[in-house]
Write the structure tokens for this entry.
Amino acid sequence: MLPPGGRGYNEGVNQLPISNQDLSPLPILDGDLEGAAMRGAWLEVDLGAIASNVRALKAWVPPHTHLMAVVKADGYGHGAMAVARSALGAGADWLGVATVAEGLRLRALGFTQPMLLLGLVVPDAYRTAIASDLQMVVGSEEALRLIAEAATELGRPAKIHLKVDTGMTRVGAAMEQAEPLARMALASPHVELVGLMSHMATADAPDPAYAELQLGRFAELEARLALPPSVLRHAANSAGTLLFPQAHYSMVRPGLLIYGIPPRPDARLPFSLKRAMSLTARITQLREVPPGVPVGYDGTFVTARPTRLAVLPAGYADGLPRALSNRQAVLVGGVRCPIVGNVSMDQCTVDVTEIDARLGDPAVLLGEQLGGSIQVEEWASAAETIPYEIICGLGQRLPKVYRS
């Protein structure tokens, strides 16, 4: 629960240069306590949970396998700076981002660790990426040529990872193009081939056949290329890391796992995970209404009895999916209370008839309260989406409060 009062971001944390030497012990990151207190709704991020998850992953993969903490999309909505610091302090040694802007923000905060741009970079950004020591994914001869030209102009080599499409059919070179591209990269004095990579399309599926087909293709290509041992091999996302130990290679790229969410609800975990994110909102209004009263936009819920309604200051602009209208519950006093009526942009309404709720009481939309629990998988199922979309959307507007 949010403590009374509060203050803004810890300026000292934002100004500290980041290095491997000063990552432990972790400082206390207050986050936007003042904003959370005024807003009446906030995300709480448990940095100790993130550190615990990373330590568990490091113990799970072989000692020679690097661990890239994927912190794109503002750390999956958890806050990229805080997540990166916690993950690195717990043993991660690479960072994964999606865009040049995300990489530049972390570089500006002092993070000097190896950082890979997992998304493709447009040619106009090549020079900036190279100058900022952001490593790039390459999947075509044209991109490789243009990156080499940009590196030549800058007078420093570009660090690249050759991505091969083994079955995702999205980013990457076709299998038959991989060998000439690898030779081209190795021969260029302006390019350093750091990694050979692919991406698993169905690692979280119950049937492992397609994932195994992809890994077989990758292994066959790796053997054929006979690249220097210094070139990292990596293909595993969270599901690949957890469910396919043969995909650990020399680096893994977990995202969802470091935030404490299993990539598949029925997956057997060889280690314990701790959830890092919870969402709480305080009741801003209580009112009694008689039977037969429509609630919210379009009147999609009509009271069937004398009803006590509570308003919470969180809506779809905060990442609470409108699809959860009349489908999801929240916890008030540990009791599940249904969301009634359509979720609005900034607010939602909850039926609290069965409990003695009071103005200002905390309602837990995600997380645990007095023995009750609501997890992101429940939201995702009700909204017919995936946990990734839920947590990324929650991080856009809500104030964040950190604890470790």
User: Anything to note?
Assistant: The first helix runs from residue 11 to 15. The CA atoms of residues 260 and 275 lie 4 Å apart. The radius of gyration is 24 Å.
